[in-house]
Amino acid sequence: MCPVHLISQHVPKILATVEWLLTCQDDSGNWPTQAPDGLSGRVSDLVQWCHGAPGILILLSTVLRSSRKKYNRMPLDKHLEHKIITSLQHGATLVYRHGFLRKGVGICHGVAGSIYALLAVSDAIDTSNTSALGHAVRLAHIATKYESYISEGEMTVPDHPWSLYEGLAGMCCAWAEVLHRLESKRARKCSGMPGIDDLG
Question: Which residues hold Zn(2+) (predicted)?
């Protein structure tokens, strides 16, 4: 976890960047793969951790959770908090709808990244009216049949099929995290994904 004294002087800039990122979300709930120039009007169809909604959802969930902790590293006004929650809901819907990716089961541009994004949203906003956890469980369950999807040509084998970020190791971590959540029946105090979880 990042010590408070290291981050506190940067909080205003971080929150300004968060506000800007919120303005970049498109009508589908996704974010562009590069900073928008306001002229192109192009829509990003990449829904993966490294390009699009899953990575931004993890960031926004971390900011929202940090604002609610007793030492409150990210003090949010109610307006910004509401904008973040709305953005998370919109993005999570997109990730659930398009998060079963053809590129494989890894974290970076595969199903595991979508699952971790939904778990982060679940930790930040799940109530009786939302079910990001349920959506993460559903994607994790569908991913158990990844070998069939590969053999049927519905999913490809990544360049590094066993690695954490491209391959099966990342999916194994996601399955373990989903199982832990189901067995514990409560949200974690911090979420993110393996190797990138230091802002808790």
Answer: 50, 108-109
Q: Residue ranges for the binding site for Zn(2+)?
A: 50, 108-109
For the chain, what are the domain ranges?
Answer: 9-31+45-183
Secondary structure (3-state) at 196: strand
26: left (phi over 0), alpha (psi -120 to 50) or beta: beta
What 3-state class would DSSP assign to 51? strand
- Tell me the average pLDDT across 13-32: 94
Query: SS3 sequence, 76-135?
Result: CCHHHHHHHHHHHHHHHHHHHHHCCCCCCCCCCCCHHHHHHHHHHHHHHHCCCCCCHHHH
For 37-72, how does the pLDDT look when each residue is reduced to its tens digit (9 = 90+)?
655 566 677 888 888 899 999 999 989 988 887 666
Return binding residues: 50, 108-109
Please say whether the beta carbons of 124 and 136 come within 8 A.
Answer: no
